[in-house]
Amino acid sequence: MSPYDFHCHSTVSDGMLSPTAVVERAAARGVRVLALTDHDELGGLAEAATAARQCDIHLVNGVEISVNWGKHTLHIVGLGIDPEHVVLRDGLQRIRSGRTERAQLMAAGLAKVGIEGAFEGAMRFADNPDMIGRAHFARFLVEQGRARNLQAVFKKYLTPGKPGYVPHQWATLPEAIEWLHAAGGLAILAHPGRYDMGKKTMNELVEIFTRFGGDGIEVGTANHTPDLVARFARLAESFDLWASVGSDFHGQGHYGDLGQFPPLPDYCKPVWQALGVTLPAEVPATLP
Ligand code: AMP
Ligand code: MN
Ligand code: MN
Ligand code: MN
What we know:
Layout: E1 4-5, H1 19-28, E2 33-36, H2 45-55, E3 58-69, E4 72-79, H3 86-96, H4 99-112, H5 118-123, H6 134-143, H7 150-158, H8 173-182, E5 186-189, H9 199-211, E6 216-221, H10 226-238, E7 242-246, H11 271-275
Parallel strand pairs: 1-2, 2-3, 5-6, 6-7
Antiparallel strand pairs: 3-4, 4-5
One manganese (II) ion binds near residues 64, 190 and 191.
């Protein structure tokens, strides 16, 4: 368990708890510094800030930007941003638009393989209809018994080449970094171990990301094995990038729980130093 968590979601995007409930859960689990990083959307940050004051949590303003990079979809987490900054707000608004149309096409694809009513079904799981996405479809498909869990549903229906997959035009990599920097934040390459690319392509990606001004890599995340932690810690070191940590919590059973992911190796430059946040003296760097 870690007292820092720089990646999680609320009902403002595809998480299952309200911003207040996320902050309260984090506090109850011993997290003291939390970044709420909803997909392409800043609408949960004000509510989270109010809850954080009540729970004695230090809230870092965050966001997770969806990016197209060749055939890959990447996620860039922004930390320490100004949520009012017009460049960031306008950019995010542009990539959010079209999610409803995409969801209708996803439902049409699923109807072709005999799954009716997926649009309405997924919408039942989307608290913020403008942010309808694959996670909401996945919850509907699990509910319908189409596969035994989220992982299996994604593999069968919601990944490239599968009936419910529809690509979308997100930000470019330099755009995402520019928007985050304009808003005074850091750009972090999220969950690198989850991208479907070989080591050579990953090295190219990190090199390009660094060249565009990217600031850090998420080294400690829920689905990173010890091998992946070591690999991305070394990559961060060789490109002189900050090392971030985060659960990617969406709700129970969807990625990690708050504060839960492998620790950073000692030689990493932890992102909380770049953000200038310090823990109260009585809080240990690693929780039991
Ligand atoms: P979207 O932005 O609509 O393409 O949806 C992306 C979201 O789908 C991610 O943020 C995750 O919440 C979820 N997701 C993608 N792949 C998986 C997977 N294999 N297992 C669980 N959730 C996934
Ligand atoms: Mn998500
Ligand atoms: Mn992500
Ligand atoms: Mn995420």
